[in-house]
Amino acid sequence: MLLRSGILAPADGEAVAVENERAAGTVVLVCEHASHRLPISAGQLGLSEEVLVSHIAWDPGALELARLLSTRLEAALVHQRFSRLLYDCNRPPESPAAMPESSEIFEIPGNRDLAPAERYARTAAIYVPFHDRVSALLAAYVQEGRRPVVVTVHSFTPIYFGKKRDVEIGILHDTDSRLADATLSAAISGPYRVERNAPYGPEDGVTHTLRLHALPAGHANVMIEVRNDLIANSVDQEVMADYLAGLIATAVSVVEGK
Fold this sequence. Notes:
Layout: E1 16-19, E2 27-31, H1 49-52, H2 62-73, E3 76-80, E4 102-103, E5 106-107, H3 116-143, E6 149-156, E7 159-160, E8 163-164, E9 169-172, H4 178-186, E10 194-196, H5 208-214, E11 221-227, H6 234-256
Parallel strand pairs: 2-3, 2-6, 6-11, 9-10
Antiparallel strand pairs: 1-3, 4-5, 7-8, 9-11
Helix pairs in contact: 2-6, 4-6
């Protein structure tokens, strides 16, 4: 079917992008679902254009929000340049969700019955370079004497399987809840409905990046989920970035004992 040999052509560019790499702060932002773009070799994975720009293919508004946070927090930003439908960089290679055959109500024909060689090719082309860059950036911070703080940035749809989601901001964590606890404490009197491990939690397999890069090294970490109707335009993105930057900066200070 698709992608039997090379995944990325020269015209596609790199699988991963790093912005503000020499930022002065300690926060490293990661945006695994930044783009709905597909490489030339993938075609459209058997999907319509309407589906390919929907939330199943990416996290709408997440990259714009992450870029604003990068500026406000003086933070480096690593983001994936292709759709999570090709490979979801927040899932390990052995997970069925890494190259999903379906997402919510949609079947993904281009991901059906993938041969092991094709799964390996996608992993090598997309997942490995992405996480290698995150690892290298964190290692550079440590070598410079900085204690990196890992913050992943996501958005979620207001309606999922026909059910409305009332939570507006999710503060997610795995076994290390230090930064999440401090962030939730800072959000108590805020204007948004902020909840712990919502609308997903670690039991849903969404904390892979944190497990891979932060937990083994003891780096403070948190995953932030924002309902995408709250960051649907540039004005709302600026408002949300101001709010979240304040929460994160306060939480980091608490964790670092400042």
